Structure formats: structure tokens, C-alpha cells
Amino acid sequence: MPDVNSTRHHQWFYFEVSNMEANVPYVFNIVNCEKQNSQFNYGMKPIMYSVREAILGRPGWVRVGTDICYYRNCYQNPSSRKPRSYLTTTFKITFPHSYDVCYIAYHYPYTYSQLLAHIWKWSQTVDPASIYFRAESVCLSLNKNETPLITITAPESDTNPIVMREIIFLTARVHPGESNSSWVMHGTLEKLLSSSSAAVSLRSKFVFKIVPMLNMEGVINGCHRCGLTDEDLNRRWSNPNQHLHPVIYHTKGLLEYCVYVLKKPPYVFCDYHGHSRHKNVFLYGCSNSDSWCETDRSVPDNPADYLLLPQLMQHFSPAFALQLCSFSIERGRESTARVTLWREFGIKRSYTMESSYCGFDQGLYEGHHVDIIRLKEIGEHFCDALACLHNEPYWRTDVIPFSAGSLRLDLQGGLPQSVLEVSESERSDCSECEEHC
């Protein structure tokens, strides 16, 4: 199905199969896909949940399928501006049980109801003596669903008042089909609510404001890219409409309050996403020198501001691919959350974090599919990187490998002193910024 009120975005699928025979191969053809290429051609498999396996005590989603291919077919897309054929996703599944009920999906689902259930559980189990946890609604969506806003920090104290702490703002699931972003956010929330030393330190230093699901309408209706208005909400941040895009409007309003009323621009902003064409995990950031706008390029910036967090992620997360990170600002991305908040509010560490639907082609996890455990682990490692970013002495990391030499961190108290060391051969490759290097 296309997205609601749309004729486009046929990518997400999630359906039931029943009354099958065991050990008989069944071929599934999804014939109206639109993207020109897919990770289905590079090893990705769909996932399946078996009710019979769950009854036998083995519940969970598993990767399934053989003879998987993604190719152009002969069916025309009538809604395309130019005559263009659809593409087919084909795969073969041999079910282990007869007359089972199975669910097959593009990726691991994470529903709005699931999110609300977890929030309720956390609210009942968190120890208020050590964690300040608050869940409230930032606004009502178009369909009058509440938009959860989660606040996590350490309780108020005379020696560490909340008003003195920096703010970290996290969002996810602006594209409803990117359910992997919700699992990464789930890992982040579990880490922040844990008793680990990194979590304790983060809560004492920061106030976390988290909107874990920006497009619950799209999630509820099974959309892939848009919500009820057939608009990409990640292209509405520069000028959101209060009535058509209430969640974006009020979330941006909360950020504006932090910047202009509290005088506290977020120390880090990160919007969690999923990526359908790349493997691994990576970050998009913002650099003046890589902007399409000449005015931006004329203003020097400090690369350590936006490079340090990706470096730390590379250090902590085996799923992270530093070489895929990009810090360019393209004209077509001006209205995304990452660029809008960097430009309008001066948030230097404004990022989009992308997680693959498929898996990994480097490092410890090379050749493995991504799963729920690893997605949650990515969210946990992001917290570890944030803890180190704010100069936590228990991360005794003297040198973190850097793509152009090494990034040296002084963690012996005081503010981090970052020194970017560039060899002579590397210096000659960047003559335009040689003076800065």
C-alpha cells in the first residue's frame, strides 16, 4: 500500500500468512516497489515472526528467505511524473510448521502502542531518588494522539541545580517506516535509565529532552515516509504549520524556548533515522566549509565541534562507519531538522544518525545482519560517546584514531583540549585550509 492520502512510497510491508504447509517453498513477489535499488540485492533478508515458535517458547523476529532479488518489472507506475516501471522484491520462504500463523515484515516493527507501554513501564520502575524521569505530551497530533516528550536527568540538589545543566535534545521516527530508529532510541533510553557510570554521569551533567516518535500518525497507519498530509515532515522544520504539522511546530517551539528564554542552546541535537541504501551506522553533521552557501563558507568554524562525536562513536561502536559520515550542507536539505536547527539556533553539534536496515560490511560485525540487540546497542554506545564528549575522566582515552592523524584528548580535568595533528602529506591535500590546520 502507498502512504495515507498518497500514491507514492511503496516500501514498507508487514503482512500475515497462515494455513501454510511445512517444508514447502513459497515465493513472494512484491511488485510495486519504487526505489531504484535496494539492500535486498546486497544480502538483506525480510523478517518473520512465527506464532507457533512463540508458543514453543521461542518468540521473536528472525531473518528469513532465499533466492532474494530486487529488479525492474514491466508494470508501469501511473503516478510517476515520467513513464517508469515498478520494481519487484522477490523472496522464497520455507515455513517450519504447518498451519502456523506468521508475520512477514520489511524490518523489525516498533509501534506507537509499544512506545506508550514502555514509557508506562519506565515510569513505574525508575527510582526517583537517583533519576528524574518525566513523560508528558508536547502536543496532540492531527488524529488527536498524544506526542510523548520524555525528560531524563538527575534529581535537583544544592550542589548541582538542574538550571545549571546543559541540554541534549534527541528525536526519532520522523519517517514512520524507519522503525530501526525507534529501536536505537529504545537503547538510548534504557542506557540513560540504567545505573552504569556513563548514565549516572550523563544525568548529572545534562537534561535530556527526548521526542521518541515525531510521526505517530504515519506509524499507526503503516506509512513509510509521510503522515496524513502526504508530506515529508523532515522537510518542514524551517517553516512548520501549526495546524498541518503540529508535532514539528511544537517541538521546534520547545527548542526555541531553550535557546531564547532559557539561553541554553542544546549542547547536542540528534535526529535518529534509518537508511535503506547503506550498511553500518553513520552521522550527518553541519560544516560551514562544506556548505552550498557562499556566506557559510566565508565564516570559519572549528572542525572539532562537529568531528569529535563521530570520532567517539567510531571508538565505542563496532557498527559505526566513520568513512560514511558527511558534514556537507546541501540546498535541498535546508529544511531538515539537522540543518534548520544548526542555522537558526546555532547548535554546532546538530546531527542526523543513520542506521542501516540491512547490516554491516566492516569491523567486528562484518557480514552480519542488523537485529534488535545490535540496534539497541547502537543507542547505548551513543550515550557512551556523549559521556566522553563532555570530558568524563573515567573514559581514560588519550588518543582516539582520527582519519587525518589523531585527535588527542586531555581528560585530566578542566575543559577538553583538542589538538588536530595533521601530517605533512595530509597538509598538502588541504591547501585551502592550511592555515587553520
Outline the structure in words.
By secondary structure, this protein is an alpha+beta fold. The chain has two domains: 14-105, no CATH class; 112-397, Aminopeptidase (3-Layer(aba) Sandwich). It has eleven helices and 17 strands. The protein has helices at 51-55, 112-125, 179-192, 197-205, 216-220, 246-260, 294-297, 303-316, 337-345, 372-389, 424-427; strands spanning 14-18, 25-33, 47-50, 61-63, 66-76, 85-94, 101-105, 132-140, 146-153, 166-172, 206-211, 268-275, 281-284, 350-356, 399-402, 405-408, 419-421. The strands form four sheets. Strands 8-9-11-10-12-14-13 form a seven-stranded mixed β-sheet, with helices on both faces. Strands 1-7-3-4 form a four-stranded antiparallel β-sheet. Strands 2-6-5 form a three-stranded antiparallel β-sheet, with no helix packed on it. β8 (132-140) and β9 (146-153) form a beta hairpin. α3 crosses α10 (372-389) and α4 (197-205) crosses α10. The longest helix has 18 residues, at 372-389. The N and C termini lie far apart (52 Å).
Which labels suit this protein?
437 residues; alpha+beta; Aminopeptidase; seven-stranded mixed β-sheet; four-stranded antiparallel β-sheet; 11 helices; 25% helix; globular; disordered C terminus
